[in-house]
Amino acid sequence: MSKRFNVWLLILAAILISRFIGMALFPFADTTEPRYAEIARLMAETGDWITPWFEPGVPFWGKPPLSFWAQAAAIKIFGVSEFSLRFPSWLATLAMVWLVWRLARQLWSVQVAQWSCLVFATMALTYISAGAVMTDAFLALGTTLTLVSFCLVMSGESGLWRWLFFLGMVIGLLSKGPLALVLIGIPIVLWLLLSWREATNNLRRLPWFRGTLMTALLVCPWYILAELKTPGFLDYFIVGEHIRRFLDPGWAGDLYGSAHDQPKGMIWMFWLWASFPWGIVALLSLTLAWLRGKRSGIVSKTISNPGVSFVLLSALAPMLFFTLAGNTLWTYILPSLPFTAILIGRWVSECKSFWLSSIRGGLVAFVPVLLTVLVGLVAIGWMPLKTEKELVSYYQQIREANDSPLIYLDDLPFSARFYSGGTALEVTKNGLINLPGARAFQHLYVAVPRTWSSDRVADLSPSARKVMENNRYQLLVIGGLLRDQQPMSDANGVRSNDI
């Protein structure tokens, strides 16, 4: 093994390990991570592996269960923690790094493969999603596996890759749904239109009938069971999430959040953010080359090389599909990044420019160092987050047997729901009196907005006192409120108590 190979491997390992360590130190911040983490926690707790539950009694129809299966399994193995829930995404990213290596080495060289892996691992979205509780890493793994397998089979490879092509579809369909087939189909169809003569014979290498049958047998049972268990799932997920969400910018059918209304074409700006810093540097370099009159050479090299054209189409597919969509997020770019990284990795490894050679080491370190510093600042308490971990932990330490559950007035953050193990309650002001067993509580623990004045706190209860606060809420303890005050009857005979 060469010295250069050893150095490259050490750098890549350091990048991946830095994210591995950060997974355990960074708390879940509202809203995405704790929302998905709580769904996985409920799956592990209830043993219901068919229907992910948004909360007890409310099915989560927004995503298929593959990511939740992986996270719930990690909980079963490692226990409930930030690390266990993020670990599956880290493994999915590790698998994608290997796929990037394998394809870049097949198409070009070991040196191109090395730089492609470094570029991919240090892009902003890759590094963040590698240690985040999201579904996107699993979608990207599925699409990457299928597209890499297709490219390798078209290049003459056979054996296991013929079947991994279909396994990638299974992963995509069980992690994000039919969207996976769209992101896979766009580059394959466009590439076949460009290279039909070269691809005709190689297409026969794929076991289309048996592979499709295998895909259906692995995917369809869950979709059928999910619809039978909670009728309405297929209409919401297939029609709502995959058609209305993208065609209707004002779609208001999201049951679990709000639509992400963005200007059409915003997905291209998201690509710059997701691929940062590499995308910006590569785009600037490409623009300079274009202006210097090298445009014909760039285009001819791309079109004439089937491998390069397929990688380029795979990199562009998510942006092409989401360009006209009104509801988009920057995480939708992730399936593009493995192929974007291969193209940039080839450019970085072969470019003789002095300025690029002098800064490429810094580009590799930029995102990992920046995010590691951020994790450190959060860990030591210098940078506040939108998380209820500290408040919930404080409540759990001081509460006694006869005290109330942790109560959030009017709005229960997802992080409070997760860190309390699902015991935290969302209650309105008038609903406090109707808490089950309220008159037996020695103390009520109520979290109210930090912006509440002392007069407003006193209006809630004269006996309320603040015991701690974070950057969003203050925790109040109310001693004997509901036991000391006598409820009154209104004109209709309904018992009430104006707190």
TrEMBL record:
Domain Glycosyltransferase RgtA/B/C/D-like span(s) in chain numbering: 63-223
This protein's UniProt keywords: Cell membrane, Glycosyltransferase, Membrane, Transferase, Transmembrane, Transmembrane helix
GO molecular function, one term: mannosyltransferase activity
The protein, known as: Dolichyl-phosphate-mannose-protein mannosyltransferase
Keyword Manganese: no
Pfam family, one: PMT_2
GO annotation, biological process: lipopolysaccharide biosynthetic process; protein O-linked glycosylation; response to iron(III) ion
Taxonomic superkingdom: Bacteria
Source species taxonomy: Bacteria, Pseudomonadati, Pseudomonadota, Gammaproteobacteria, Pseudomonadales
Topology with respect to the bilayer: Multi-pass membrane protein
Chain segments annotated as transmembrane: 7-29, 87-104, 116-141, 161-194, 206-225, 270-291, 303-323, 329-349, 361-383
Main subcellular location: membrane
Subcellular compartments: Cell membrane
GO annotation, cellular component aspect: plasma membrane
